[in-house]
Amino acid sequence: MRNNGLGAPVECPNVLPRRSTRGCKASVTSALAFFWILLVSPALSQQPPSTSLQGYGVKIFRVESGLYPCVQVYFRTFDQDKNPLVNLNELNIGIMVKGRSYDPGKRQYRVESLRTRDEAVRSVLVIDASLSMKGEPFEKALKAAARFIDSKRAQDQVALLAIRDPSKEGYELVSNFERDAGALGRRLADVPCDAKKTRLYDAIGAAMQMCGMVAQGGTSAAAAEYIVSCSVVVFSDGQDDGSAISREELNARISGLTIPVPLYSVAYSTVGTAYFKNLEALSKNSFGVYYPVGEAFDRMQQVVESIQNILQNDYVVTFRSYVPVDGEEHALKLGVEYPSKSGKITYESTKFEAIEPPPIEIIIKKRAALCELIPQLPDNNPYMVQAAAETAPQGSVGQ
Question: Residue 210 is part of which domain span?
Fold first, then answer.
């Protein structure tokens, strides 16, 4: 693995935020969430997910430069069955800045699973409450949605949208983003199944718009939350009646998103699968997963647990950059080799900004703490040392 720059474990304490930093989490996440808007938003991957013949892929969701020179890259992985890759570490991950590979032996980056960290993820559950779902299908969908809520982490937030016609928009906001599982469960139980039309695309579009909102507060005293991703989970048969936007227009919106919003569709029905393809198309276009449940309603429980497993198995790479502060964006590649030492590598490209953190005391302290965990090298050179024959200009070897 050292020959291709993607080997050697790195021993470095966990980067922030961590579960062991409860005492200062609220203020830290509040400040970072606010300054992310100003500092990081341009530095996001806008490319389709990297895929390969090896049967796995990588998608970068967020790049955080707010604690520069330490940069954090949040990414999601998937195998041929759309399940996340497990147990990734520095043996599997490589960093390349402006075309030059980091030497893992110099311990200038580390890899962590999001499952063990304090950053939160958001999800919007869209529930088809049309009369065609009445009875067992609707009851099983509510039960599965409740299971999804119960299996989330304490810091994660869920919002609820019901597709109903009493509202002129064709959907009802049952709950805004909420961390309290009990409160979400009570609101979910009050959703009636009475819609005569199913404005599915309008409801999904509204859920995506909610995902695009910057976190401004939660249910606690914390002023803001640090959100690293947002996804949409749809429970429906895929039929749309009278939406203001078409499936093609919705897919165009999905393709144009700067920050990916995966759509996980749970397709079920007692009257046939003719409209399932609508959900399948949206999920595939959004880097989500399509689950054709059909009439196997009890399978929904397993499906929502699989979705939660995906959301909680994202990873974050933290590396120290040696690019001088210039306010510009710089090329970054993240490589994943899976399995380790297999030589099968998939890369995803993005950018980061070389910027100074704002002169805010809490930000300065957190930056200093993080930089202490990944100390600066005396020679300012985190890169692989190439052999002379590889680095010399053509015709210059031996001269």
Answer: 120-311
- Asked whether residue 201 is assigned to any structural domain, the reply reads yes
Q: How many domains does the chain have?
A: 2
- Tens-place pLDDT, residues 147-190: 999 999 999 999 999 999 877 888 999 999 999 999 999 999 99
pLDDT at 51 over 80: no
Residue-wise pLDDT tens digits, 55-83: 678 889 899 999 999 999 999 998 888 88
Question: Residue 345 falls within a domain, yes or no?
Answer: yes
Please report whether residue 102 resides in a domain. Answer: yes
Give the 3-state secondary structure of the chain. Answer: CHHHCCCCCCCCCCCCCEHHHHHHHHHHHHHHHHHHHHHCCCCCCCCCCEECCCCCEEEEEEEEEEECCEEEEEEEEECCCCCCCCCCCCCCEEEEECCEEECHHHCCEEEEEHHHECCEEEEEEEEECEHHHCCHHHHHHHHHHHHHHHCCCCCCEEEEEEECCCCCCCCEEEEEEECCHHHHHHHHHCCCCCECCCCHHHHHHHHHHHHCCCCCCCCCCCCCCCEEEEEEEEEECCCCCCCCCCHHHHHHHHHCCCCCCCEEEEEECCCCCCCHHHHHHHHHHCCCCEEEEECCHHHHHHHHHHHHHHHCCCEEEEEECCCCCCCCEEEEEEEEECCCCCCCEEEEEEEEECCCCCCCHHHHHHHHHHHHHCCCCCCCCCECCCCHHHHCCCCCCCC
pTM score, two decimals?
A: 0.78
Within-domain flag for 132: yes
Same domain as 127, residue 239: yes
Residue 128: give its domain's CATH number.
3.40.50.410
Which residue, of 290, 311, 332, is where some domain finishes? Answer: 311
pLDDT (tens digit per residue) in 271-293 = 889 999 999 999 999 989 999 99
